[in-house]
Design brief:
The protein is built from 11 helices and 12 strands. By secondary structure, the protein is α/β, with parallel strands linked by helices. The protein has an 8-stranded parallel beta sheet with strand order 11-10-9-8-5-4-3-12, covered by helices on one side. It has a two-stranded antiparallel ribbon with strand order 1-2.
Length: 317
Amino acid sequence: MTRIGTSDLDVLPLALGGNVFGWTADHDTSFAVLDAFVDGGGDFIDTADSYSSWVPGNEGGESETIIGEWLASRKPSGVVVATKVSQHPQFRGLSGPNVRKAAEASLRRLGADEIDLYYAHFDDATVPLEETVAAFGQLVEDGLVRHVAVSNYSAERIREWIEIARRTGVAVPVAVQPHYNLVHRNEVEDTIIPVAEEFDLGLVPYYALASGFLTGKYRSTDSSEQDSPRAQGAAKYATEAGLRIIDALEQVADAHGTSVAATSLAWLRAQPTVVAPIASARTIAQVPDLLAGARLELSAEEVRLLDRVSEWTPAGA
């Protein structure tokens, strides 16, 4: 178990991504994945109010609704649920009234009285940050949110949020969610991790497996050959530099008798301030590798090997 920043939330160091629920995983499959995750010891679920509004016929909130129905059906003990605000088609942005309405809508969909971890999904420069910070602080004060967090914020804006929160006496963020993995390192390591270390923020990285590329299953840059949205997202990473990373991951994975996916997650867990990488599963067959990644411990030498082979990989390469 690991603690998320300065919060009282202790979780297995892996978050199950809910972005696929209501998209590439239908209702029954989503229930099966959630069951397998919790049965295997998982207890941290990450979603957003906008998931999966991009799917034709969806309006946003589908993932939260499925998770809420699963929570009501299974009544699991000790499961931590994180969700986010700013991108739902009906609740865009981070104005004070919008944050409140979006949180209340998320609570209804989740069937919960309180959100464990509530993220500002993307920064909103059109709203004074003081207004957003106050809105999040009020949600905590009113008992609708336990802890606040930020996602996709720059280091400068994280610092500003914390300064405002401390000055005004409201809840300070406990976590930050950046895009971070073996093929997307530089910006996070140069700017976000130092801020997280300074303020005891827990990193909860998304795209931990680079849209599936870091499972080792996708080795072609020809996206026309791919048969799923995940595979198409992975194709762009199958460059010469990207495949060198996969080769190194396979070497380390073989030494442990485990998968490339588990090894990728274990590397991420070994990075400073990282508490729980986010990874999603479209099928129950994908869940065991994710859970293995929460428990695999790499040697310092193995971490250095993966550091070296991915050191010069440009973000998004």
